[in-house]
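[Meeting: bench + compute handoff]

Bench side (C.D.) handed over the final construct sequence. Compute side (W.E.) agreed to return the predicted structure before the next meeting so the bench team could plan truncations. Sequence as handed over:
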Amino acid sequence: MTKRFYKTAAAIALDGGGHGVALDGKPIRTPAGRIFCVPVPALALAVAAEWAAQDSVVKPLTMPLMRLCATAIDRIGGARDGIVAQIAAFGASDLLSYWAETPADLVARQTERWQPLLDWVAARYGARLVVTAGIVPVEQDAATLRALHDAVGSLDDFRLAALSQLTAACGSLVIALAATNRHIDAAATVAASQLDEIWQAGQWGEDDEAAERRAALAAEIESAIRFLALLEGTR
């Protein structure tokens, strides 16, 4: 954290194309020193609003859109192949491959929330995941893993940054891909990724630490989906 050193924050059009943010008229750079450049004005406006909302101290953790932009520009641009492989690897042990054996109520909820997503990823990408009941590991077909890798690799750097955050927060590449494609909204993404925890909390209650963890993951999901909406000019 650093003290706020500027008075104004505004979105700007960059001379070389793209959109940036200026603090007191000076274009900002990313943490790695690269030019801060995003593809759409709506995203630049939203990031400028994050800068403008800072009080006497600049707190990066309160600027999720800025952090996602910096990830796209600094991290993904220089290590794209490795990041694609890292994200795609989630498909080998996806959350949606492991269903409960009992009780019937939990299995019914998984069927309601998860099966449509498994059907969607099969139809959209040709990736048919093997599923099991219980915790015994299952091996996914090589063609399915290739299809998931290709799906991840097809995204541009900014959408890949959002997918990376979503995959980590959801523990599921399938759910994250559905959210990135805007097939499901933030509420449905949280509900699918936290289905087991929500069910358990409803049965036996939830301690403060677990509730805080779920809330933090939900916030990561919501900021990533807002980021995607801004990229598409829909929010």
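W.E. noted at the follow-up: The radius of gyration is 20 Å. C.D. will use this when planning the next construct.
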